[in-house]
Design brief:
The complex is a heterodimer of chains A (400) and B (290). Chain A is an alpha+beta fold and 400 residues long. Chain A has 13 helices and 18 strands. Chain A is elongated and about 80 Å long. In chain B, helix 5 crosses helix 9. The chains are: A alpha+beta (400), B alpha/beta (290). Chains A and B meet through helix 9 and helix 13 of A and helix 4 and helix 5 of B.
Amino acid sequence: MNLHEYQGKELLKSYDVKIQEGKVAETVEGALKAYREMKEETGSEWAIVKAQIHAGGRGKGGGVKLGKNEAEVKEHAENILGMMLKTPQTPGGMDGEGKLVRKILIAEDAYRPDFDACKEFYVSILMDRAAKCNVIVYSTEGGMDIEKVAEETPHLVHKEYVDAELGLQAFQTRKIAFNLGLSGKAFKEMTRFIAKLYKAFVGSDASLFEINPCLKNAHDEIVAVDCKVSLDENALYRHKDLAAMRDTSEEDATEVEAQSYGLNFVNLDGNVGCMVNGAGLAMATMDIIKLSGGEPANFLDVGGTADAARVEQAFRIILRDPEVKAILINIFGGIVRCDRVAQGVIDAYKNMGNIEVPIIVRLQGTNADIAKKLIDESGLEVKSATLLQEAADRVKEVLA
Amino acid sequence: MAVLVTKDSKVIVQGFTGKEGSFHAGQMIEYGTNVVAGVTPGKGGQTHLDRPVYNTVSEAVEKAGADVSVIFVPPPFAGDAIMEAAAAGIKTVICITEGIPVQDMVKVKAYIEDTDTTLIGPNCPGVITPGEAKCGIMPGFIHKKGDIGIISRSGTLTYEAVDQVTKAGMGQSTCIGIGGDPIPGTTTMDAVKMLMGDPETKGIIMIGEIGGSMEADAARYIKEHGTKPVVGFIAGQTAPKGRTMGHAGAIVGGEEDTAEAKMKIMEECGIHVVKSPADIGATMARVMGR
């Protein structure tokens, strides 16, 4: 689950990590009120208006603007709120539709009072699958696209692995601060910043923290100017406050709806829908659709209890996509009994009236014979298959 | 022989009296698995499915001689259950539970590595040695005793491979479901090593998916040390980058963990890679000259 920048900063602040302060607003009036309060608190006329969407590279699409007085802040707030912001990370990239900006953050100018005395760094924390532990990735090249830095100047990207049992040690935070070229007060501040950041990462069951830029200001303080935070959904049960931060308006509406029915669904661009039990088989089914000349329209794992109600909901969701020219149902019955799935398909079909799109049903495993009989005798125009290859052949026929 | 679980394994079920545990323990017993007891904290002294229930795993080891444990404990408590089994000296711990927080598994994995315990899973269908022991949730009837070892990160896709192998006239030595999580107890390479060292296994099917580097690591091992033919498939050739496809571990992060990249490495390492999941059984038969 992804957090907005302002939510991520709230989380960091609760662990005493110094952040670029700001106030969130949903209207221009709210933005101005936030600006005046910020001005009062900081004594500065300057403020940054930052679009709050779940995508990076917001500055590239005009979603982050500096305002040097109230009039400029108002103008930026008016322009950014409600805009369709395109960034390299929004669907379709810079050529796509972009994402609607519903909230903005009015943030302090963290580079005050002396821009030239500031230095930007990059710091992120994530779990390294191969090393089976958390790793802190950091670089002197802050404020830039880290993937580009890693590609062009890999020696400037450092990694510090954290022992799974012992956690982060003081010598590691010192090593990081030294490698970032810091000394004196800034050095000490950085060691503290890293230690608190790591504590926040583990304490919130995060899967990613990315602080870019991580700023050293003229006072030698270390400040998180931006942050990207992703949380482990499996651990949300122990973080009710963080779970409540979920913003479903940032997610695909169909996927959110599917989730509410217990369906694991991912929207794709193709022309053949699929309904499968099990994630691995679902991916394999998408692959076989492609090999049969189609393109998968979705990933859908109906899970272990594919009953009539669930099958019907899945049907409705898949059929909402006008591009779908065929649906392949691929169930390998283990615990799931194929006859029950077949009955589900038949009931859903009858409930929904006419389904214009051809449906290929492949049921294998527990009670597959009974299931095939049920489908064949139902009088429905469903093409049934037993082997995976047969299902692939049916898809090919339908698309021909 | 086979690996991990055999007819001589003394199997216990953790989460024995719960809904999932009860159902699957019943199925395991029906298959002929030597289930000797169950563990549910606070229910020690009771009898369930004609087997004794113990409060702790160490009690089950002491009194029933347990050496294999199958875990059906809910996610918040599953990491703890794995460590309890390892601490009690259980040789093979098979964790079926899906949805364990990653930071829990980071700790559990580190803990397990200091013990003699082999962890299979979590988020897996389990392990079966056909005709001997079924330790998991797979449908027993699709399996047939034979000499093909199967390794997979997926449940139903494993069943698909098993079914194809059986329909091609062959059978399975041991099928190991290593699970779909980002931190598995046993990696693809660990499982390959086990099956390469098993005299009853003559050929190996390795089923992977997008995300991580486990298949590439296993492929490189096979190139150096492999002694048996391996057929491989990677699910998720059409999966988009950056999206989690059902399994927590099935996400393309970079250039190296796409299906295409993995299949290329596997091919270079001499694995018989199939593009279509429908060709797994037939390819194995062809490679084995059957």
